[in-house]
Design goal:
Shape: globular
Strand content: 5-15%
Helix content: 40-55%
Radius of gyration: 23 Å
Largest sheet: 6 strands, mixed
CATH class of the largest domain: Alpha Beta
Order of helices and strands: HHHHHEHEHEHEHEHEEHHEHEHEHHH
Number of strands: 10
Amino acid sequence: MSGNGRGDDDRTDRFAGDPAFAVHEGGKLSVVPTGRIESIADLSLTYTPGVARVSSAIAAEPELARRFTWASRVVAVVSDGTAVLGLGDIGPKAALPVMEGKACLFAEFAGLDAVPIVLSTTDVDAIVETVVAIAPSFGGINLEDISAPRCFEIEARLRERLSIPVMHDDQHGTAIVVLAALRNAAKVTGRTPGDLRVVVSGAGAAGVACTKILLEAGVGELVVADSRGVLHAGRSDLAASKQWLVENTNQSGHAGTMADALVGADVYLGLSGGTVPESAIAAMADDSIVFSLANPIPEVDPTMAARHAAVVATGRSDLPNQINNVLAFPGVFRGAIDAGATSITEEMKLAAAAAIADVVGDDLRPDYIVPSPLDRRVATAVAEAVAACAREQHVTI
């Protein structure tokens, strides 16, 4: 019996009518051999003694591991469960279904195997050392749902120590898709990225990464706000990531609230939750662009936003223009791994964003600025663009 007095059968019955639980019953992943073991000969080649010849060859020439093990085509999906979806710090066990889901997306959209790994520590040093220790088993490290600001240091230290692609998807996957969508939103409204004044609501992992990639892409002006208002030079006691934003954005010196900054702005990019009043959206420039990405409830009501904005995007699958990381990360890792890239560079992220935007092609319209997450062309286009960029930059083994 369980602690609440109900038996296993009763506990199972509580979930019987929910199709989400049916999909997750017993987990969503399994390990399947690439070949059958049906004879003594099969056994002797798959395991001992045949495997010893392969291991000896790799010991003498470590680069052979890329050819004769699974490492080169397997991604580790690593989380400590501190920033899971919109659920927050729910711990590693509760995070595991999300990491399993991420692994399913790698397989489905990029043909890459992935292993979910949840860690029972939130200590930066412990996480870094653990990932470094297990890295020989993998061809890439996808960091997932690790809270800011620790996620910045963890990613930076792993990128420094490992010679395989490392990416924190909550930062860079979001940033890549946001840039792709913004490129097309600017085009459909007759502008270029350089014409745009963008207000970013949220200075966490996604907010910082989106701001950086938009700067790289040449967006005209960027203002970033957190829960206390616009980040500006007069703010004190800021974390290092927010101080970087102060030094690299808000050239006009806005110092008030986010609503103040939205007056006359071209783009609202919401990455923080909360609620934005209609008056603030109405005060934006003509043909404004609203990306309201909090899930499941966007910061700006999409119906309200459509009364004032020329283009509206959200993170929801039941509305047009879904900003979904699945448009980016499978192809980014597929391309980086195919090219033998030792890292994922800023240029590779820009190439990925351009590839996503280009898939839309001549079908571009206000309610179709990014492809559907189910569009099978996307991962291939992204992988090819990322691999080509990696080779051009000579960041391959």
